[in-house]
Amino acid sequence: MCFIVSNDDRYWRTLDQLEEKACKWWPKEVREKADEISILQTLIKTQDNFISILKLLKRGEPERIFPLLEASAFRPNLFLKHLLVLTDFGSEPLQRVNKDFINIFPEREIEFDTGGAVKTYRFKALPVKGPLTNAKMVISTPEDLESKPCNEDLCEDLIMIVSYGASAVRPSTRAILYKCIISEFFGQHKKEDTEKKERGEYQHHADGLRRAHDVRLLCAQLIRAGVCGFCLFLFFHSVRT
Q1: Integer-rounded Cα radius of gyration of the chain
Q2: Is residue 237 within 8 Å of residue 22, measured between CB atoms?
Q3: Can you spell out the DSSP letters for 19-71?
Q4: pLDDT tier for residue 137 given thresholds of 50, 70 and 90
């Protein structure tokens, strides 16, 4: 059995020859997209508890954040993931912050204005060695968010950055972390405002997933049209596995 991609004999391939270099499993990118879909469901399921915690916090009392999370049995990495969605400040900008940490935080601490006083938080885990990936933050999969042990010191460092970064006293730090305005939501009793904002970010993620789905549909249509025998072979393998 052969697949013909071109009239040129050089491009004739048997099934065995194609199998040597075929991708027999879903690519990493597809698996990550599937994980993202599940993560969104986890975030939606825990959204009400997350918003309730925001309402109990006060911008001028950052020290209340972590005792409240512990008392609420709300995992710090799950709280962090909600914050990253709410601010649209994801792993890529956090990787840059980690890489340039000493330039952004030369004293290994952040001074920030709470609206009534200037407070200081000293980092405990940052910077980390190598890239600050979702895996290191333990926010990659539903299992991560629901049960997998996380580095609580690292989560606390990141929660403080995302919550108070835009209120940093140092202008250059404030300019880099201008999206990190979560503390402005602390103590708000208008649940609708926070919920609308977070739902908007969820929709943004969902739109990205939908675009990826459309691309896969287009690939399937091209395959059905017989555009590429090699793609057809990959498609058969993906269905089989």
Answers
A1: 23
A2: yes
A3: HHT---S--HHHHHHHHHHHHHHHHHHTHHHHHHHHHH--TT-GGGHHHHHHH
A4: very high
CA dist., res. 97 & res. 93, Å (int): 6
- Summarize the confidence of residues 210-235 as an average pLDDT: 45
Reading the block at residue 102, the tokens are 């000493």
- Residue 181 CA to residue 203 CA, distance in Å, equals 20
Q: Which residue in this structure is represented by tokens 């990493």?
A: 28
Q: Give 148-181 as a 3 state SS string.
A: CCCCHHHHHHHHHHHHHHHHECCHHHHHHCCCCC
Q: Name the pairing type of β-strands 118-122 and 13-14.
A: unpaired
DSSP code, position 186 = T
Q: CA dist 203 to 38, 41, 86, 168, 226, Å?
A: 14, 12, 11, 29, 35
| DSSP count for the chain of H helices, then E strands | 13, 4
Percent of residues, the chain, with pLDDT higher than 70: 66
The pTM is what?
0.68
Tokens coding 158: 């990141």
Q: 106: which DSSP letter?
A: T
Q: Tell me which residue has tokens 């609580």.
A: 152
- Please tell me the distance from the alpha carbon of residue 26 to that of residue 72, in angstroms, as a whole number: 38
User: Using an 8 Å Cβ cutoff, are 158 and 138 in contact?
Assistant: no
